[in-house]
TrEMBL record:
GO BP field: aerobic electron transport chain
Protein name from the UniProt record: NADH dehydrogenase-like protein YjlD
UniProt-recorded Gene Ontology molecular function terms: NAD(P)H dehydrogenase (quinone) activity
InterPro entries listed in its UniProt record: FAD/NAD-bd_sf, FAD/NAD-binding_dom, NADH-Q_oxidoreductase
PANTHER family according to UniProt: 64 KDA MITOCHONDRIAL NADH DEHYDROGENASE (EUROFUNG), APOPTOSIS-INDUCING FACTOR 1
Keyword terms of this UniProt record: FAD, Flavoprotein, Oxidoreductase
EC number: 1.6.99.-
Pfam families listed in its UniProt record: Pyr_redox_2
Amino acid sequence: MRHRIIVLGAGYAGVFAAGALARRLHPDDVEITAVNAEPDFVERMRLHQLAAGLDPRRHELAELFADTGVRLRLAHVTAMDAERRTVSVTDDEGTDQLGYDTLVYSLGSTVADHGVPGVDEHAFHVAEGHAARRLRRRLDELGETGEVLVVGGNLTAIEVATEIAESRPGLGITLATSGELGGWLSEKARRHLLRAFERLHITVHEHTTVDQVSATGAVAANGTVLSSDATVWAAGFSVHPIAAAGGLTVEDDGRITVDRMMRSVSHPDVYAAGDSVHAVDRNGRPLPMSCASAGFTARQATAAIIGDLTGRSITKVPLGYFGNCLSLGQKDGIFQVVDGDAQAKSWSVRGRGAARFKNAVLKGVMVTSSNPTNGLPARRHRLAADAGSARAADHRRHVGSP
Protein backbone atom coordinates (compact mmCIF):
# COMPACT_ATOMS: atom_id res chain seq x y z
CA MET A 1 0.00 0.00 0.00
CA ARG A 2 1.37 3.41 -0.95
CA HIS A 3 2.08 6.04 1.71
CA ARG A 4 -0.83 8.49 1.72
CA ILE A 5 0.10 12.18 1.80
CA ILE A 6 -2.71 14.73 1.99
CA VAL A 7 -2.11 18.46 1.49
CA LEU A 8 -4.87 20.64 2.92
CA GLY A 9 -5.17 23.89 1.02
CA ALA A 10 -3.67 24.82 -2.35
CA GLY A 11 -2.49 28.34 -1.75
CA TYR A 12 1.10 29.56 -1.93
CA ALA A 13 2.33 26.98 0.60
CA GLY A 14 0.11 24.07 -0.39
CA VAL A 15 0.71 24.20 -4.14
CA PHE A 16 4.46 24.30 -3.67
CA ALA A 17 4.44 21.47 -1.11
CA ALA A 18 2.26 19.16 -3.21
CA GLY A 19 4.26 19.75 -6.37
CA ALA A 20 7.65 19.42 -4.69
CA LEU A 21 6.70 16.20 -2.91
CA ALA A 22 5.37 14.72 -6.15
CA ARG A 23 8.59 15.54 -7.95
CA ARG A 24 10.88 14.26 -5.19
CA LEU A 25 9.16 11.09 -3.98
CA HIS A 26 8.75 7.97 -6.10
CA PRO A 27 5.16 7.52 -7.37
CA ASP A 28 5.26 3.80 -6.63
CA ASP A 29 5.68 4.63 -2.94
CA VAL A 30 3.38 7.61 -2.35
CA GLU A 31 -0.11 8.81 -3.16
CA ILE A 32 -0.42 12.60 -2.93
CA THR A 33 -3.80 14.33 -2.72
CA ALA A 34 -4.31 18.10 -2.61
CA VAL A 35 -7.63 19.24 -1.15
CA ASN A 36 -8.89 22.71 -2.04
CA ALA A 37 -12.29 24.38 -2.09
CA GLU A 38 -11.77 26.28 -5.36
CA PRO A 39 -10.62 24.94 -8.74
CA ASP A 40 -8.23 27.86 -9.26
CA PHE A 41 -5.05 28.84 -7.50
CA VAL A 42 -5.90 32.08 -5.70
CA GLU A 43 -3.17 34.70 -5.89
CA ARG A 44 -4.02 36.24 -2.58
CA MET A 45 -1.65 39.15 -3.09
CA ARG A 46 -3.69 40.15 -6.14
CA LEU A 47 -7.15 39.91 -4.57
CA HIS A 48 -7.32 43.66 -3.98
CA GLN A 49 -6.85 44.06 -7.75
CA LEU A 50 -9.61 41.56 -8.47
CA ALA A 51 -11.96 43.37 -6.10
CA ALA A 52 -11.19 46.74 -7.68
CA GLY A 53 -12.17 45.48 -11.14
CA LEU A 54 -8.98 44.12 -12.71
CA ASP A 55 -8.74 40.59 -14.06
CA PRO A 56 -5.56 38.81 -12.96
CA ARG A 57 -4.61 35.79 -15.00
CA ARG A 58 -6.45 32.61 -14.05
CA HIS A 59 -4.39 29.63 -12.84
CA GLU A 60 -6.28 26.35 -12.81
CA LEU A 61 -5.04 23.91 -10.19
CA ALA A 62 -5.65 20.98 -12.54
CA GLU A 63 -3.24 22.60 -14.98
CA LEU A 64 -0.66 23.38 -12.29
CA PHE A 65 -0.72 19.77 -11.11
CA ALA A 66 -0.77 18.27 -14.60
CA ASP A 67 1.85 15.54 -15.10
CA THR A 68 2.91 15.68 -11.43
CA GLY A 69 0.84 12.76 -10.17
CA VAL A 70 -0.92 14.93 -7.59
CA ARG A 71 -4.59 14.07 -7.23
CA LEU A 72 -6.79 17.18 -6.87
CA ARG A 73 -9.87 16.89 -4.64
CA LEU A 74 -12.18 19.89 -4.87
CA ALA A 75 -13.92 20.04 -1.52
CA HIS A 76 -14.21 22.09 1.66
CA VAL A 77 -12.23 20.81 4.63
CA THR A 78 -14.64 20.70 7.56
CA ALA A 79 -12.72 18.77 10.24
CA MET A 80 -9.71 16.65 11.04
CA ASP A 81 -8.96 14.00 13.64
CA ALA A 82 -5.25 13.93 14.42
CA GLU A 83 -5.54 10.77 16.51
CA ARG A 84 -7.38 8.77 13.84
CA ARG A 85 -5.43 10.43 11.01
CA THR A 86 -8.54 11.40 9.08
CA VAL A 87 -9.81 14.53 7.37
CA SER A 88 -13.49 15.28 6.74
CA VAL A 89 -14.35 17.04 3.49
CA THR A 90 -17.59 18.20 1.90
CA ASP A 91 -18.44 18.74 -1.76
CA ASP A 92 -21.60 18.74 -3.90
CA GLU A 93 -21.92 14.99 -3.43
CA GLY A 94 -21.83 15.09 0.35
CA THR A 95 -19.33 14.44 3.14
CA ASP A 96 -16.37 12.09 2.92
CA GLN A 97 -13.51 11.01 5.16
CA LEU A 98 -9.96 10.79 3.87
CA GLY A 99 -7.29 8.83 5.70
CA TYR A 100 -3.65 9.90 5.67
CA ASP A 101 -0.22 8.74 6.78
CA THR A 102 1.34 12.18 6.43
CA LEU A 103 -0.58 15.45 6.46
CA VAL A 104 0.50 18.88 5.24
CA TYR A 105 -1.73 21.46 6.90
CA SER A 106 -1.70 24.65 4.81
CA LEU A 107 -5.25 25.98 5.03
CA GLY A 108 -4.01 29.53 5.46
CA SER A 109 -6.04 32.24 7.14
CA THR A 110 -9.18 34.28 6.77
CA VAL A 111 -10.35 37.70 7.91
CA ALA A 112 -10.32 38.42 11.65
CA ASP A 113 -13.48 40.18 12.82
CA HIS A 114 -12.11 40.73 16.37
CA GLY A 115 -15.61 40.19 17.70
CA VAL A 116 -16.85 43.49 16.29
CA PRO A 117 -20.66 43.39 15.84
CA GLY A 118 -21.87 43.59 12.26
CA VAL A 119 -18.66 42.57 10.50
CA ASP A 120 -19.94 39.15 9.43
CA GLU A 121 -23.33 40.49 8.37
CA HIS A 122 -22.43 43.74 6.64
CA ALA A 123 -18.73 44.02 5.82
CA PHE A 124 -16.78 42.88 2.76
CA HIS A 125 -13.21 41.58 2.74
CA VAL A 126 -10.48 40.36 0.37
CA ALA A 127 -8.97 37.47 2.32
CA GLU A 128 -10.43 34.86 -0.05
CA GLY A 129 -11.26 34.68 -3.74
CA HIS A 130 -15.03 34.46 -3.39
CA ALA A 131 -15.01 37.40 -0.95
CA ALA A 132 -13.03 39.60 -3.36
CA ARG A 133 -15.49 38.77 -6.15
CA ARG A 134 -18.39 39.63 -3.85
CA LEU A 135 -16.86 43.06 -3.14
CA ARG A 136 -16.29 43.59 -6.85
CA ARG A 137 -19.97 42.97 -7.56
CA ARG A 138 -20.93 45.52 -4.92
CA LEU A 139 -18.58 48.12 -6.37
CA ASP A 140 -20.05 47.46 -9.82
CA GLU A 141 -23.50 48.15 -8.37
CA LEU A 142 -22.30 51.49 -7.02
CA GLY A 143 -21.00 52.55 -10.41
CA GLU A 144 -19.41 56.01 -10.34
CA THR A 145 -21.07 57.25 -7.15
CA GLY A 146 -20.93 56.01 -3.61
CA GLU A 147 -18.80 55.86 -0.49
CA VAL A 148 -16.38 53.06 0.38
CA LEU A 149 -14.96 52.67 3.88
CA VAL A 150 -11.82 50.57 4.44
CA VAL A 151 -11.20 49.57 8.06
CA GLY A 152 -7.58 48.79 8.93
CA GLY A 153 -4.09 50.20 8.58
CA ASN A 154 -2.04 47.18 7.49
CA LEU A 155 -0.70 46.27 4.05
CA THR A 156 -4.00 44.81 2.86
CA ALA A 157 -6.01 47.84 3.95
CA ILE A 158 -3.64 50.24 2.21
CA GLU A 159 -3.59 48.21 -1.00
CA VAL A 160 -7.37 47.86 -1.09
CA ALA A 161 -7.95 51.57 -0.53
CA THR A 162 -5.43 52.75 -3.13
CA GLU A 163 -6.39 50.16 -5.76
CA ILE A 164 -10.10 51.00 -5.56
CA ALA A 165 -9.38 54.73 -5.52
CA GLU A 166 -7.25 54.47 -8.67
CA SER A 167 -9.51 52.05 -10.56
CA ARG A 168 -12.79 53.73 -9.60
CA PRO A 169 -12.09 57.47 -9.23
CA GLY A 170 -15.78 58.32 -8.99
CA LEU A 171 -16.10 56.64 -5.60
CA GLY A 172 -15.29 58.38 -2.34
CA ILE A 173 -12.73 56.31 -0.39
CA THR A 174 -12.20 56.61 3.36
CA LEU A 175 -9.74 54.63 5.49
CA ALA A 176 -10.09 54.30 9.26
CA THR A 177 -7.19 52.91 11.28
CA SER A 178 -6.72 52.48 15.01
CA GLY A 179 -3.15 53.74 14.77
CA GLU A 180 -1.12 56.10 12.63
CA LEU A 181 -1.29 55.43 8.91
CA GLY A 182 2.03 53.90 7.87
CA GLY A 183 3.51 54.53 11.29
CA TRP A 184 5.58 51.37 10.91
CA LEU A 185 7.32 52.73 7.79
CA SER A 186 10.54 54.73 7.63
CA GLU A 187 10.20 58.51 7.44
CA LYS A 188 10.67 58.78 3.66
CA ALA A 189 8.42 55.81 2.95
CA ARG A 190 5.64 57.22 5.13
CA ARG A 191 5.85 60.60 3.41
CA HIS A 192 5.54 58.82 0.07
CA LEU A 193 2.50 56.89 1.35
CA LEU A 194 0.75 60.03 2.56
CA ARG A 195 1.40 61.77 -0.77
CA ALA A 196 -0.16 58.80 -2.58
CA PHE A 197 -3.27 59.03 -0.42
CA GLU A 198 -3.51 62.76 -1.15
CA ARG A 199 -3.07 62.15 -4.87
CA LEU A 200 -5.84 59.56 -4.83
CA HIS A 201 -8.10 61.75 -2.66
CA ILE A 202 -8.45 59.15 0.09
CA THR A 203 -9.77 60.49 3.39
CA VAL A 204 -7.94 59.11 6.45
CA HIS A 205 -9.18 58.81 10.04
CA GLU A 206 -6.23 57.92 12.26
CA HIS A 207 -6.52 56.66 15.85
CA THR A 208 -10.06 55.58 15.07
CA THR A 209 -11.17 52.19 16.36
CA VAL A 210 -14.34 50.86 14.76
CA ASP A 211 -16.68 49.29 17.32
CA GLN A 212 -19.64 48.42 15.10
CA VAL A 213 -20.46 47.89 11.43
CA SER A 214 -23.89 48.34 9.89
CA ALA A 215 -25.42 48.25 6.43
CA THR A 216 -24.83 52.00 6.11
CA GLY A 217 -21.35 52.34 7.56
CA ALA A 218 -19.59 52.06 10.88
CA VAL A 219 -19.41 53.64 14.31
CA ALA A 220 -16.07 54.37 15.98
CA ALA A 221 -15.28 54.07 19.69
CA ASN A 222 -15.18 57.88 19.97
CA GLY A 223 -18.70 58.11 18.58
CA THR A 224 -17.73 59.15 15.05
CA VAL A 225 -20.18 57.88 12.44
CA LEU A 226 -18.54 56.81 9.18
CA SER A 227 -21.11 56.53 6.40
CA SER A 228 -20.48 53.94 3.72
CA ASP A 229 -22.17 52.11 0.87
CA ALA A 230 -19.57 49.34 1.12
CA THR A 231 -17.44 48.72 4.19
CA VAL A 232 -14.28 46.67 3.59
CA TRP A 233 -12.93 44.99 6.73
CA ALA A 234 -9.14 44.67 6.48
CA ALA A 235 -8.17 44.69 10.16
CA GLY A 236 -6.04 41.56 10.22
CA PHE A 237 -6.24 37.81 9.72
CA SER A 238 -7.05 34.76 11.80
CA VAL A 239 -6.57 31.04 11.19
CA HIS A 240 -9.29 28.46 10.80
CA PRO A 241 -10.19 26.60 14.04
CA ILE A 242 -9.90 23.18 12.38
CA ALA A 243 -6.39 22.47 13.68
CA ALA A 244 -7.24 23.12 17.32
CA ALA A 245 -10.54 21.28 17.10
CA GLY A 246 -8.76 18.34 15.47
CA GLY A 247 -6.47 17.79 18.43
CA LEU A 248 -3.29 19.55 17.35
CA THR A 249 -1.36 21.66 19.84
CA VAL A 250 -1.78 25.32 18.86
CA GLU A 251 -0.74 28.75 20.09
CA ASP A 252 -3.13 31.30 21.61
CA ASP A 253 -3.91 32.65 18.14
CA GLY A 254 -4.75 29.17 16.81
CA ARG A 255 -1.62 28.68 14.74
CA ILE A 256 -0.08 25.21 14.91
CA THR A 257 2.86 24.80 17.28
CA VAL A 258 5.73 23.13 15.42
CA ASP A 259 9.37 22.22 15.81
CA ARG A 260 12.10 23.70 13.59
CA MET A 261 11.23 21.22 10.82
CA MET A 262 7.55 22.37 10.73
CA ARG A 263 6.31 19.17 12.39
CA SER A 264 3.44 19.46 14.84
CA VAL A 265 4.88 19.11 18.35
CA SER A 266 1.92 16.93 19.34
CA HIS A 267 1.53 14.88 16.15
CA PRO A 268 4.79 14.51 14.15
CA ASP A 269 2.94 13.00 11.17
CA VAL A 270 1.39 16.47 10.63
CA TYR A 271 3.48 19.25 9.06
CA ALA A 272 2.27 22.83 8.84
CA ALA A 273 3.11 25.65 6.42
CA GLY A 274 1.86 29.10 5.50
CA ASP A 275 -0.34 31.27 7.68
CA SER A 276 -1.45 28.22 9.69
CA VAL A 277 1.94 27.66 11.33
CA HIS A 278 3.61 29.32 14.31
CA ALA A 279 7.14 29.29 12.92
CA VAL A 280 9.91 31.07 14.81
CA ASP A 281 12.52 32.96 12.80
CA ARG A 282 16.25 33.29 13.41
CA ASN A 283 15.71 35.98 16.07
CA GLY A 284 13.14 34.09 18.08
CA ARG A 285 10.12 35.94 16.70
CA PRO A 286 7.15 34.21 15.05
CA LEU A 287 7.04 34.78 11.30
CA PRO A 288 4.17 37.04 10.22
CA MET A 289 1.34 35.75 8.06
CA SER A 290 2.66 36.53 4.58
CA CYS A 291 3.48 35.09 1.19
CA ALA A 292 7.19 35.17 2.05
CA SER A 293 6.60 33.16 5.21
CA ALA A 294 4.54 30.67 3.23
CA GLY A 295 7.51 30.11 0.94
CA PHE A 296 10.02 29.53 3.73
CA THR A 297 7.78 27.25 5.78
CA ALA A 298 6.61 25.24 2.77
CA ARG A 299 10.21 24.59 1.75
CA GLN A 300 11.12 23.51 5.27
CA ALA A 301 8.07 21.25 5.66
CA THR A 302 8.74 19.67 2.27
CA ALA A 303 12.40 19.06 3.06
CA ALA A 304 11.45 17.52 6.40
CA ILE A 305 8.87 15.18 4.88
CA ILE A 306 11.29 13.98 2.22
CA GLY A 307 14.00 13.44 4.81
CA ASP A 308 11.68 11.70 7.29
CA LEU A 309 10.27 9.34 4.68
CA THR A 310 13.45 8.52 2.80
CA GLY A 311 16.06 8.69 5.54
CA ARG A 312 17.96 11.43 3.75
CA SER A 313 19.45 14.41 5.57
CA ILE A 314 17.09 17.35 6.02
CA THR A 315 18.04 20.77 4.70
CA LYS A 316 17.56 23.54 7.24
CA VAL A 317 15.80 26.34 5.38
CA PRO A 318 16.65 29.84 6.70
CA LEU A 319 13.64 31.54 8.24
CA GLY A 320 13.27 35.30 8.32
CA TYR A 321 11.26 38.35 7.31
CA PHE A 322 13.09 40.96 5.28
CA GLY A 323 10.64 43.64 4.22
CA ASN A 324 7.17 44.97 3.53
CA CYS A 325 6.15 45.17 -0.11
CA LEU A 326 2.95 47.04 -0.88
CA SER A 327 1.35 48.43 -3.99
CA LEU A 328 -0.30 51.84 -4.19
CA GLY A 329 -2.27 51.26 -7.34
CA GLN A 330 -0.79 49.89 -10.55
CA LYS A 331 2.19 52.20 -10.98
CA ASP A 332 3.21 53.11 -7.46
CA GLY A 333 4.40 51.24 -4.42
CA ILE A 334 6.79 50.91 -1.49
CA PHE A 335 9.30 48.24 -0.53
CA GLN A 336 10.32 48.82 3.07
CA VAL A 337 13.36 46.91 4.32
CA VAL A 338 13.15 45.78 7.96
CA ASP A 339 15.72 44.62 10.49
CA GLY A 340 15.83 41.40 12.51
CA ASP A 341 13.18 42.73 14.87
CA ALA A 342 10.84 43.56 11.95
CA GLN A 343 11.41 47.29 12.49
CA ALA A 344 11.77 49.56 9.47
CA LYS A 345 15.25 50.48 8.34
CA SER A 346 15.89 53.90 6.83
CA TRP A 347 16.23 52.40 3.34
CA SER A 348 13.20 51.81 1.08
CA VAL A 349 12.29 51.66 -2.60
CA ARG A 350 9.42 53.93 -3.63
CA GLY A 351 7.37 54.72 -6.71
CA ARG A 352 7.41 52.86 -10.03
CA GLY A 353 10.49 50.87 -9.06
CA ALA A 354 8.70 49.41 -6.06
CA ALA A 355 5.63 48.63 -8.18
CA ARG A 356 7.76 46.80 -10.75
CA PHE A 357 9.59 44.96 -7.98
CA LYS A 358 6.37 43.70 -6.42
CA ASN A 359 4.99 42.61 -9.78
CA ALA A 360 8.22 40.68 -10.42
CA VAL A 361 7.88 39.03 -7.01
CA LEU A 362 4.33 37.95 -7.78
CA LYS A 363 5.36 36.49 -11.13
CA GLY A 364 8.28 34.71 -9.49
CA VAL A 365 6.02 33.19 -6.85
CA MET A 366 3.80 31.72 -9.55
CA VAL A 367 6.78 30.25 -11.41
CA THR A 368 8.10 28.66 -8.23
CA SER A 369 4.70 27.37 -7.12
CA SER A 370 3.95 25.74 -10.45
CA ASN A 371 7.49 24.39 -10.89
CA PRO A 372 9.05 23.80 -7.44
CA THR A 373 12.15 22.14 -8.90
CA ASN A 374 12.88 25.29 -10.98
CA GLY A 375 13.10 23.31 -14.19
CA LEU A 376 15.58 20.74 -12.90
CA PRO A 377 14.95 17.05 -13.64
CA ALA A 378 12.87 15.37 -10.98
CA ARG A 379 14.80 13.00 -8.71
CA ARG A 380 12.23 10.71 -7.17
CA HIS A 381 13.51 9.03 -4.03
CA ARG A 382 12.24 5.75 -2.65
CA LEU A 383 10.82 5.58 0.85
CA ALA A 384 12.90 4.01 3.61
CA ALA A 385 11.52 0.99 5.43
CA ASP A 386 12.16 2.63 8.82
CA ALA A 387 10.97 6.12 7.85
CA GLY A 388 8.42 6.31 10.65
CA SER A 389 10.96 5.38 13.31
CA ALA A 390 13.41 8.00 12.07
CA ARG A 391 10.73 10.68 12.14
CA ALA A 392 9.66 9.79 15.67
CA ALA A 393 13.27 9.83 16.93
CA ASP A 394 13.96 13.22 15.39
CA HIS A 395 10.69 14.57 16.80
CA ARG A 396 11.68 13.45 20.30
CA ARG A 397 15.02 15.25 19.97
CA HIS A 398 13.28 18.50 19.04
CA VAL A 399 10.53 18.51 21.69
CA GLY A 400 12.52 16.89 24.49
CA SER A 401 10.32 13.84 24.89
CA PRO A 402 11.84 10.73 26.52
